[in-house]
Amino acid sequence: MSSILVVDDEKSLRDFLAIMLEEEGYKVFTAHNADSAVKLIKENIFDLVLTDIRMGKSSGINVLESAQKILPDTPVVMMTAYASAETAVDAMKKGAYDYISKPFKIEDVQLIVKNAIEKKKLSEENRLLKTALSDRFQLPNIIGKSETFQRIFDLIEKVSRSNATVLIHGESGTGKEMVAKAIHFNSNRKNYPFVSINCGALPENLLESELFGHEKGAFTSADTLKLGLMESANKGTFFLDEIGEAPLSIQVKLLRVLQENEILRLGGTKAIPVDLRIITASNRNLSNLVNDKVFREDLYYRLNVIPIQLPPLRDRREDIPDLVEFFITKYNSKHKKDFIKSVEPETMRFFENYSWPGNVRELENVIERAVVLETSESIQKTSLPEEIFGAVPQFQVPGMNKEKIDLERTLDQIEKKMLSNALVQADGIINKAAKQLNLSFRSMRYRIQKHQLKGKSKDNE
């Protein structure tokens, strides 16, 4: 039940409003002056304050100012018998939600009250959503314990403190938008909008209108003025995904945004200042696009102030178990299947050895499918798509993309990976895996123990 505070020095009007609003299903409190109203505001949480402006020596403006300090999300509607433009403008300038002139119609009051309370609920939902998003993209909540991802976390933390332009590189599905949101929600812009657009998802004319807006009459169907997404994101962060797909005509206008901090609506003549943090992402090599003359060199250098390279999932396999656990929890909740607790060790070996061309996004889709299909407490390989458990595990040489590598450690990793691959293909049977690697049973068992792997001595074990 929404609660309303009615403040008026006229008892008959207070009583009338209280009865009328209670019949509408609201819980109503009343006060006869500003002092008693402020006392109630300090002691209760109201969804709406409905106050007269002039109450003898008392002023409804005092009620408005107190409500804004104590209950900043609560709308305040002013009432007055002195219907003057100056009074209304003064109240609205000070933050009043709306204004009612006495005498008023009951249906007018009912409509204003309904709209004001809905506005408060929407504000609360938006605040909760922002809080949830901010919590979700705090660095401790992002999954990635691999050495590569820990370095990315360190970079995100440093970058978030600045307003520098960031260019995120990575294959599709590696989490480029997740990193962009992490930068935003760990920055001093987190209370302002995060707005994103995929540059390859819209044709050139629509992309320009979406980004920069248009004036009324700018083209045939432009019946009204439209604010662009960049204008609506003012003071926040604007994320341009797949920036390599942006046409050259759009690139020129983006360069202006970066250089001049202003936009020009389609069909407009007046520059509009904007304060934006620009983050871009691409799964293509922009320097190659520059060489091919399809991406502006000056824009590339403006965007590439701080580059972040996201590794594919196949290069951070140690993160797979934690990602699997996270997605199981997520889709257990979504599909109401809380009985799924884990993944069979054999299934996890398939996860860890598959090449994941679709990266984290593909892994998430595979886990959702498995959660939907699985009937036991642990995900079995039969709940996986055939390309996962039917494919030959992909072997990757670790460390070869680095300038310097630890040879002993790398050889150890290679041995462990080959042993694990052989065990997967031999269904965990040590004899079969040993023959595949041309090793004796004893040598194979020693290496399995050394790397803390699991295997079976016989087919029936």
Summarize the structure.
The protein is of the alpha/beta class. The protein has 19 helices and 18 strands.
- Per DSSP, the total helix count is 19
Order of strands in the sheet with most strands: 2-1-3-6-7
State the CATH architecture of the largest domain: 3-Layer(aba) Sandwich
The CATH topology of the largest domain: Rossmann fold
Structural class: alpha/beta
Count of discrete structural domains: 4
CATH class of the largest domain: Alpha Beta
Q: Spell out the CATH superfamily of the largest domain.
A: P-loop containing nucleotide triphosphate hydrolases
Poorly predicted spans: none
Main pleated-sheet profile: 5 strands, parallel
- Percentage of helical residues? 40-55%
Instruction: Report strand %.
Output: 5-15%
N-C termini distance:
64 Å
How would you sum up the global shape? elongated
Protein model, in words:
By secondary structure, the chain is α/β, with parallel strands linked by helices. The protein folds into four domains: 3-130, Response regulator (Rossmann fold), CATH 3.40.50; 147-311, Rossmann fold (3-Layer(aba) Sandwich), CATH 3.40.50.300; 314-389, Helicase, Ruva Protein, domain 3 (Orthogonal Bundle), CATH 1.10.8.60; 407-450. It has helices at residues 11-23, 34-43, 60-70, 85-93, 106-136, 147-160, 176-185, 204-212, 229-232, 248-260, 286-291, 297-303, 320-335, 345-353, 359-373, 386-389, 407-425, 430-436, 441-450, and strands spanning 3-7, 27-31, 48-52, 54-55, 58-59, 76-80, 98-101, 166-169, 194-198, 213-214, 226-227, 237-241, 262-263, 272-273, 277-282, 306-309, 342-343, 378-379. The strands form six sheets. A five-stranded parallel β-sheet has the order 2-1-3-6-7, with helices on both faces. A five-stranded parallel β-sheet has the order 9-12-15-8-16. A two-stranded antiparallel sheet has the order 4-5. Helix 2 runs parallel beside helix 3 (60-70).
